[in-house]
Structure formats: structure tokens, C-alpha cells
Amino acid sequence: MTSGEAAADNETDPKWAVPVLVLQVLLAGLSLLICTFAMPIGRMLGVLDLPDGRRKLHARATPLVGGIAVLVPVLLIAVWQAASTDFTPFYSVLAGAILAMTLLGLMDDRRHIPASLRLVIECVVVLATLYFVPGLRIEYLWLRFADTPIFLGAWGGMAFTLVCLVGLQNAVNMADGKNGLVIGMALIWTMILSAYGPSHLSPLLIVLALGLAVALAFNLRGLLFLGDAGTYGLSMLFGLLAIYTHNIGFPRLSADGIIMLFFIPVIDVLRLMVVRIAQRRSPFNSDRNHFHHILLAMLPWHWALAVYLLLAAVPPLAALYLPLATPHMLVTQLVVYVVIVGLRRWLVARPAPAPATSN
Q1: CB neighbour list of residue 338: distance below 8 Å, 6 or more residues apart
Q2: Angle, nearest 10°, between helix axes 227-249 and 115-132?
Q3: Considering the domain boundaries, does residue 29 fall inside one?
Q4: Nearest to residue 71, comparing CAs of 173, 201, 197, 212?
Q5: Has residue 47 been placed in a domain?
């Protein structure tokens, strides 16, 4: 995306206002239709998650089509915006990247793809995206506490962006362990990016928010799961939107603001990898040591979900109105996260009280 294209971000042409509204309603209806018929769609695609009594403790076979219900409408609105706006390269590449990652996740839902092969495919998709739209590279970082931006250069920016996008994809995928978690975070991210992003993103973000809200209603009732198709596609979508918003409007959305936006799932996956490597296990092994598992061991799930989402939402929302406090909000997130993890470890390590004796 060139600077001229970024500067051309005008309000939506009034003649498109009604068609856009109609399209948004139709696409929200499409999300609802997919969620309503989630079970037959899941059977047709071969993406039913079966309980195993060990890690998968849900009561019945559950379709992994939540991501499809959210991302198919987003893909359609992105294609429409590529054809009807001046931002054709951006929306075309955005749609292509989301489609590629969604298909990768769908294949992983159908038949598990080895982590090494999946990583290679993710890197190829990201590098192709950055090649076609160089404006999506993170070539500089503007931090609230720094006097000047940190310049990474073309190659450094390419490598850094690759690490960030692939890392976010794995962080979001690992966070998807309980109903409402990732979809709830995605709604928070949508709301915050809509406050920072340029106006031409509004149609896409509205369709995204409506699809997420519909999928969340079904997900909280245990009628469908997001699936890898959802986590892979959504993580790529939000990563690219955050980079794009930072690159064209960095005085408002700083790099530490983006870090804070995705902080909880990212810091959690880093902690898990360090712990697993220290225990001489593969960093990609599964366990029940995620942050949501820690909260679930301390609280009923509805309260644990509320704590998780509040910790993900409150600091970036506060920074939206108090931008100079962004570094302090980020530190607050880290402190609260460390305290909760440490509290759980202390409760587990504390010896059980001696049984009371009777006279």
C-alpha cells in the first residue's frame, strides 16, 4: 500500500451506503445459516470433533465450522471491497491470505498436519503476502516510550513480520481451548481495531463483528467449535489488519499498543514453550497448563472466561482513551498475568492441611 493510497482514505461514497448495508445484512444472515446447519456441514466436510474422555471432554460430536461461519462472509466482503474501492491490492492479498490459512486449518481439522509441514506452509503464505503488498511489512516500530521510531529495514522488517504473524497464529491456536475464548477475544480485537483503523475498513470489520457475535452465541451453547480453520484464518486476518493500521496510522496505534492487544495469548504461548523445553518436551506438545486451564482450576468457567477477556480487553481499551499510558497498561497486563500464574503454582505447591484429630 503506497502512501498515496493511504492518504486517499475518504469516507464511503454515499451511493454505496445502501448496497453496503444490504450486503452486511446478507452476510450476517449467511453466518447464521452456516451456524444453524453446522452439524450437516460438519459431516459433509468431515470436521466433527469427537470426545475422547482425555483432552476432549465435550459431551458429543461437535462440528468445527465456527471459523467457516465467520470467515466466509469476511472473504466475500473483502472481494467486494477489492472490486469496488481504490484499495484493490490490499483487499485482494488480504482475501488470498485468509483463504489460504483457512484452507490450511480446514485440512488440519480433517486430518492432522505435522507441525513442521504446517509451519512451512504458514511461512510461504506470509512471505507471499508481504511480497505482493510490501506495505504490510513492519519496517519500523513506533513505541510510546521511545523518542524516535525503531527502523528495521526491508529485510529485517520482512523477517520480523514473518515471526510476528506465524507466532500469533500459533498463540491463537493454542488459546482455543474453551468455548467463548478466542471468539470473545476476536470481538474485542475487532472493536479496538475499528476505533484505530481507517474508515474504508468499516464494512469488513462490521461483517466480522456480526459473524463473530453469531458464532459466539452458538459456541457458548456447545453447538459448534471454531476449529483450526477459524484460528488460523482469524489470526492471519487480525495480524495483517493490526500491521496495516499501525503502518498508516502509527501516531495513534503504536507498536506497544499492538503488543498489548495480543499480549495474553502471546505471553502464554511463550511461557508454555519455555516450560515444555525446560521439561525436555516438544514445545508443541499439548497439556493442561494454559492460562485458561489455570483460571479454570481456580474459578467456575463463566468467571474464568470473564477474567480472561477482561484482562485482554481492559488495558487496550484504557489505552484507547489514555494513549500516553500505553506502556503502563502493558506492564499492568504482565503483572496481573504473572500474579495469577504464580498464585496457581503456589496453591498447587502448598501442602495440604493435616487432617483434624478427634479427642
Answers
A1: none
A2: 30
A3: yes
A4: 212
A5: yes
- Comparing C-alpha atoms, which of 217, 176, 192, 170 is closest to residue 308? 176
- 56 domain-assigned: yes
Helix 115-132 crosses helix 153-175 at what angle (to 10 degrees)? Answer: 130
| Tens of pLDDT, residues 74-83 | 999 999 999 9
| Helices 66-84 + 88-110 axis angle, to 10 | 160
Q: How many domains does the chain have?
A: 1
Q: Are residues 71 and 96 in contact, defined by beta-carbon separation less than 8 angstroms?
A: no
Q: What pLDDT score was predicted for residue 124?
A: 95
Q: Which of 36, 304, 333 is nearest to 177 (CA)?
A: 304
Express each pLDDT in 319-344 by its tens digit: 888 888 888 889 999 999 999 998 87
Q: What is residue 16's predicted lDDT score, i.e. its pLDDT?
A: 54
What DSSP line would sit under 299-342, residue for residue? S-HHHHHHHHHHHHHHHHHHHHH-GGGHHHHHHHHHHHHHHHHH
Whole-number pLDDT of residue 178: 86
258 close to 238: Cβ distance less than 8 angstroms? no
Classify residue 37: in a domain, yes or no: yes
Percentage with pLDDT > 70 across the chain: 87
Question: Which residue range is the domain that position 64 belongs to?
Answer: 17-253
* Helix H or strand E encompassing 133: none
Cβ count near 99 (within 10 Å): 18
pTM recorded for the entire structure: 0.88
Extract the residue ranges of the chain whose pLDDT is less than 50: 1-12, 14-15, 351-359
Would you list the DSSP string of 235-300? HHHHHHHHHHHHHHHTTTS-HHHHHHHTHHHHHHHHHHHHHHHHTTS-TT---S-SHHHHHHHHS-
72, 83, 133, 251 from 232: Cα distances, Å:
13, 25, 20, 29
Nearest 10 degrees: CA dihedral of 134, 140, 142, 146?
Answer: 180
pLDDT, tens digit, 9 for 90 and up, residues 44-99: 999 988 765 566 555 678 899 999 999 999 999 999 999 988 999 999 999 999 99
Name the E strands within the chain: 48-49, 62-63, 140-141, 150-151
Three cell numbers, residue 214 = 453469531
Residue 187 is placed in which grid cell? 470481538
